[in-house]
Design goal:
This protein has eleven helices and eleven strands. It has about 575 residues and is an alpha+beta fold. It has a six-stranded antiparallel β-sheet with strand order 3-2-1-6-5-4, sandwiched between helices. The longest helix is centred in the middle third of the chain and has 81 residues.
Length: about 575
Amino acid sequence: MESCNCIEPPWPADELLMKYQYISDFFIALAYFSIPLELIYFVKKSAVFPYRWVLVQFGAFIVLCGATHLINLWTFGMHSRTVAVVMTTAKVLTAVVSCATALMLVHIIPDLLSVKTRELFLKNKAAELDREMGLIRTQEETGRHVRMLTHEIRSTLDRHTILKTTLVELGRTLALEECALWMPTRTGLELQLSYTLRHQNPVGFTVPIHHPVINQVFSTNRAVKISPNCPVARLRPLAGKYMPGEVVAVRVPLLHLSNFHINDWPELSTKRYALMVLMLPSDSARQWHVHELELVEVVADQVAVALSHAAILEESMRARDLLMEQNVALDRARREAETAIRARNDFLAVMNHEMRTPMHAIIALSSLLQETELTPEQRLMVETILKSGHLLATLINDVLDLSRLEDGSFQLDIRTFNLHALFRELLNLIKPIASVKKLSVLLSLAPDLPEYAVGDEKRLMQTILNVVGNALKFSKEGSISITAFVAKSESLRDPRAPEFFPVPSDNHFYLRVQVKDSGSGINPQDIPKLFTKFAQSRSLATRNSGSSGLGLAICKRFVLLFLL
């Protein structure tokens, strides 16, 4: 076997190849030196860069690599030991920095890779924020449309205008092909087509109110998508290849609608809902969005409120007109009553004057006849005439006083008088009558009773005398006591009239007069009728009382006048 010398013999340097290597090392060194400068420039331009120290290390690595190639330019030919030492030092430093950089990149590369993950996260977050902003803009747009619709609806209080405006504004805002309103009929068993937007269906068409689709819509306050083939959704005639758009229906509560007539609107039925149906354009891929359904629901509620306000206004106007008519009738009745009262007063005044003159003559002549010599029968007849005359005169006075009290024309004659003297005069008036009937009369005046008072002395005397006269009239034997004293505030309250609670003051006092007799008394069931005019106790009606039934009624009115 022949031996082979595998060691390649020395190859003399090719000048062309040397030039290419020289030029390549130069440009490599130039590129290595320019890269750190570019990195420094762009880092200074960047506001945030979290790895500056890594950049410094990487720049040192690149600079050393460039220095190695630059020093290598002097090693292509013969070179000194100094060049070899410098070259070796540069390569050692480059090796150290390269290894350190490689080790550091093990920790940095995962962070750099996570930057992409963060970028994707931020992109997703930005997309989510864009969707939320779109939703907010949609909600704002919906709110703006709701406010516009509400303003248009609330700008009138006419029911028909409210409903027509609602259909027009919904059709314009939502770009509807058709919109209709179904109202309950008078019987409440059907829904009647009352309003449409395009007028493509005749108003008056009816559907049963118990239809399953209608029950479904009436059972919720949300807008419900319904089939275009539903009777209430057939809002336009079918022609050719017709693909109806999506249809939704929503109930409209009739909150306060009386006298609600279709084509003058029937009265409110048992179903207190109307039905609003809305159809999107046909032959289109458009669908109902959530914000559009919310808009429809809000508008339905606003329509319900507007209809309620309109109904309340109509009722208030109707009540006002009725009240005006009643006021006119009351004013007419008042004038007629005033005319009748004036005529009655004129009649009573004339009758009072015309009847008093002959009555006084009868009484005077009867009194004179009593003083003459008369037989017992004649005296009895004269006494009867005299008694009847006095009774008739009293009746005339009572009727006149009562009529003046009832029409409010009676005025008290207020002046200062001696209260004690009034009671003494009262005692002098009744004593003769009491002595004839053998009745004793006792008068008791309280020590704190003022001697003088301000009031109508005549009417006070008439009131007390009327009560005492009844005691004399219905007492056959025994005694009559009259007690007068100042009433205390705690004893003034009337339990039957809790709102009446008079309070005495330094300038006023309340006089209480109590009259007690030994007569037969009054049945408890007759007490409520004591102060009713022309009413008498049944226990006394059969007796010869000579009473007209006006005395106590007049006394009560006098006392009420005293309290004013």
